[in-house]
Amino acid sequence: MQIIPVIDLKDGRVVHASGGDRSRYLPIDLHSRIVSGSSIEAVVSALLALHPFSAFYIADLNAIEQDGSHRHIIEPLVRRYPALDFWVDSGLRYPNSSRDQPNNLKTVIGTETGSEPYDLSDSAAILSLDFKNNRALGNPAWLELPQYWPDTVIAMTLDMVGAGRGPDFAGLDSLRCRSPHTRWIAAGGVRGIDDLQRLATAGLSGVLVASALHNGNIGASELSKF
């Protein structure tokens, strides 16, 4: 199972996401044991010193909320690390078809944008099925059209993010039953090694993690098991 660190960007800094209330997110260094600054360069360097991750997930919160963009920060970082994949959610409703986009930048399409479902089955994009408080965000019709889903789909439970309550295992089981051959990525609520092991046993292909890395619950020894 692939462990993918999460980087949430807001107003030029990496922030600590908790509970899905983005107005209250604070700089990550106030909550982290592994970083001393909140620049994206400092955070990526610290995470790579912890473990040789192969991919990072970046949420451009300003772009998602249509209040600016961190493109000028993200794209130089992506080019600096050509051997790593960067999954970037910047609020796009459709995959970026620009030829100038680096090959290691993967577009994440989040359903919270409210777009009408369309066929992503042959796309290299990653779909994020977004949930909050047991409700699908955006257009719920996405859930009824697994034939439109790409190979990799994130199950994003925003209210679980940073809450320390554990992943939504029941919800993940339900989604996997709808599309057993999808490469499922869990997101939200991971507390430590026990949650990682349970997700791996359940057949998840990957998991997005932030808080448990920064608070030390998941360290180098735990990561080496995956």
Automatic annotation (TrEMBL):
Superkingdom, taxonomy of origin: Bacteria
| Keywords, comma-separated and alphabetical | Amino-acid biosynthesis, Histidine biosynthesis
Positions the record marks as coiled coil are none
Q: Name one Pfam family in it.
A: His_biosynth
Share an example GO biological-process annotation for this protein.
L-tryptophan biosynthetic process
One of the entry's Gene Ontology molecular-function terms is: 1-(5-phosphoribosyl)-5-[(5-phosphoribosylamino)methylideneamino]imidazole-4-carboxamide isomerase activity
Pathway the protein acts in: Amino-acid biosynthesis
Q: State the GO CC annotations.
A: cytoplasm
Give the record's family classification: Belongs to the HisA/HisF family.
Name of the protein in its database record: Uncharacterized protein
